[in-house]
Amino acid sequence: MQSVLVYGRQAVRAILGTLPYDASSSLDYHRRRKTQLVTASCGFSKLEDVATPQVLKNGTFGDDAWFIASYKGVDVLGVADGVGGWRDYGIDPSKFPCQLMKTCESIVRQGYFNPDSPVSVLAKGYRELMHNKYPLIGSSTACIVIMDNENKMVHSSNLGDSGFMIVRGGRIVSRSVEQQHYFNTPYQLSIPPPGLGSVLTDSPESASNKSVCVQEGDLILIATDGLFDNMSENMILKELSKLQDQTLENLQKTVNTIAERARQLAYDPTYLSPFAMHARENGLDFMGGKPDDITILLSAVRCPDEYEESAL
Question: For 142, phi and psi rounded to 5 degrees?
Answer without folding.
Answer: -160, 145
